[in-house]
Amino acid sequence: MAKVTWTFQALEDIADIAEFHDQHSTHYASFLVEAFLAVEDQLANFPYSGRVVPETNLPVIRELIVHDHRIIYSVISSEEVSILSVRSSKRPLSEFPSSKE
What we know:
alpha+beta
């Protein structure tokens, strides 16, 4: 089982998304947060289950789609995964810091 860690950026992304949706529906905001956090179990058991992020084409940078949001993560090894960001699918990935830097 892989250890899954969340970067500060990913947690901040979730907080921002929840705050935005909370203005209209507290229930939906909570639903999204729970769905995002549930990804941790999937990645712990299946670190390579997401697809390679097309914009990077790097096998270690992957994503899972959860309710119109991209959960972008890095497979450090089969024993460790780091969740990098949670973003709306409508937001261009060009705004995402390059993993090559």
